[in-house]
Amino acid sequence: MKENQSVLGKTKISSLIWKLGLPMIISMVLQAIYNVVDTVFVVNMGEGGIEGNLALTYAFPVQILIIAIGVGTGVGINVLLSRSLGEGETEKAGRVAGNGIFLSACLYIAFLIFGIFGAKWFISLQADGNEKVIEAGTDYLQICCCCSFGALGYTIYERFLQATGKTGCSMFSQILGALTNVILDWLFIYPCNMGVAGAAWATVIGQVVSLLTAMIFHYVKNKEVKNSLKYLKPSWRIIKGIYSVGITAAVMQVLLSVMMFAFTLILSVAGDMADLLKGAFGIYYKIQQIALFASFGMSNAIMSAVAFNYGMGDKRRVAQGAVFGIADTVLVSIVISVLFQIFAVQLSKVFGMAGTDESVRLEEACVKVMRIATISYVFMGVSIAVQGVLQGLGYSIMPLVLSLMRLVVFLLPVAYIFTRSSDPTFVWWSFIVAEVATSVFAFIFIAVAMKKVKGIDEQSLQKSSGAKSV
Which one-letter DSSP state was computed for residue 3? Predict the structure, then answer.
C-alpha cells in the first residue's frame, strides 16, 4: 500500500466522516436555504405573493436541474480526483481538475440557451394559462438560467476542495454566498420593489460570490492539485472517466427535477384544491431540501473517504467508511426529522406573515405536509448514504436504481392514487411509502457491494480504475 500523506487516509474513519461531513452539511444546507429564503420573501411581499410563490414553484425543477447536472459532474470529478490523489497520480489529478472547468463552461452555455428560448415555454406548461404567474416565472427562470455560471462553477470548485479534504473552505464559500443572498433578497424585493425578479438576482449574485471565494481558496490553498492552462484542454479519456460515475450521479439528481415537475402535474387533478396543494408542495419541497441536502453532504463525505481509501487499497477503511457513514447519516436524518416535527407550526408561519386568507390557508397546508412527510427522512437517509458508498466504490447502476425507486417508481404512482382519493391531502403519505420501500433495496444493494469488496485483494484494488456497473 502506498504511503498516504492525506487526511483522507490517516484520520480515524469515525472522526473522518464527521470532519468531512459537517462542513459539507452546512455548505449544502445553505445551498438549500437559497431557495427557501427566496420563497419567504416572495410569498410575504403582499400583493402578488401567492402568484409569486407559484412562479417560484414552477421554476424550481429547472433550478434543481442546474444544481443536479453541476453536482453530478462534480461527483465524477470528486471520485476521480480523490482516487488519483490516493494512487499518487498528481498529473492525472491536474487534468481531472482542468477538464472539470472545461465541462462547467459547456454546461453554462447549454443553460444560457435554454434560459433565452425555453423559460416561458416551461413555465406555461404548468401555469394553466395564469398570465401573472407565467410572466413572473419566466422572469425568474430566465435570470437564474442566463446567470447560472455561478451555480455551475461553484459546484466544480467545491469538489476540488472536498476531494482534498478542505471542506471547511467550501463551507465558508457557501456561507458568504448565502449571507449575500439573504441581504440582497430583502433589498431587492422590498426597498427596490423588484418583486420576483429581485429574488432571482439575489440568488445568482450570491452564487457568484460563492464561486469567486471557492476559486480563491482552490488556487491559494489546494497545493495537492496542479493548476495549469494546459490542463483545460479537453481529454475525452478524462471526461469519460468523470462521467462513468458522474453521469449516474447527474441522472440521480436530475430525477429530483423530474419528480417535482411530475408531482406538480399530478396535483393538478385535485380540483379546487390544486393550487393550494401546489403552493404547499413548492414550499415544503424547498424546506425538505434542507434534510435532503444534509444527507447529500454526508453522502459526499462518505464518497470521498471510500473513494480515496479504495484507491489506496485499504479494504478495512473502506468497510469502516460504509458502516460509520450510513450510521451517521441516519443520525443526522433523525435529528432533522425531529426538529421539523417540533417546529412545523413555527416554520409554516414564516410563509403566512402576509396575513391574507390565502396565506393563512397556505400556512395550514404546510403544517400538514410537514407533519406527515418528514417522518420519511430516516429512511431517505439510509438510501442516500448507501448511494454515497456505492459511488465511492465506482458503482453506477445501483445508485441510479435507488434514485429511480425513491423518486419515480414508488412515489409517483402512489401519489396519483392518493390525490384521486376523497381527501387529496392524503397525497403526502406517498413520501413515506416511497422512502420505506427504497430503503429495503438499499440494504440489499450495500450487502452485495461490500461482499465483493471483501473478495478483492489489495493489488487488484490498486490497479482497478473506471466505473463498475451492476
Answer: P
H or E stretch at 20:
helix 13-43
* Confidence (pLDDT) at 439: 96
Q: Is pLDDT larger for residue 261 or for residue 454?
A: 261
Give the Å distances, CA to CA, from 464 to 16, 313, 412: 24, 10, 38
The answer to whether 75 and 243 have CB atoms below 8 angstroms apart is: no
Residue recorded with cell 421554476:
59
CA-closest candidate to residue 391, choices 87, 31, 80? 80
Name 285's Cβ contacts closer than 8 Å, sequence gap at least 6.
Answer: 60, 260
Q: ∠231-233-239 over CA atoms, to 5°?
A: 90
pTM of the model as a whole: 0.74
At residue 272, the pLDDT reads 84
Alpha helices by DSSP H, 44-166:
49-86, 90-117, 119-126, 131-146, 149-163
DSSP state of 269: G
Q: What count of Cα atoms within 13 Å lies in the side-chain half-sphere of residue 330?
A: 12
Distance of CA 1 to CAs 10, 108, 248, 301, 456, Å? 13, 40, 30, 22, 14
What's residue 458's pLDDT? 47
Q: Within a 13 Å sphere around the CA of 135, how many CA atoms are in the beta-carbon half?
A: 6
∠151-155-156 over CA atoms, to 5°? 120
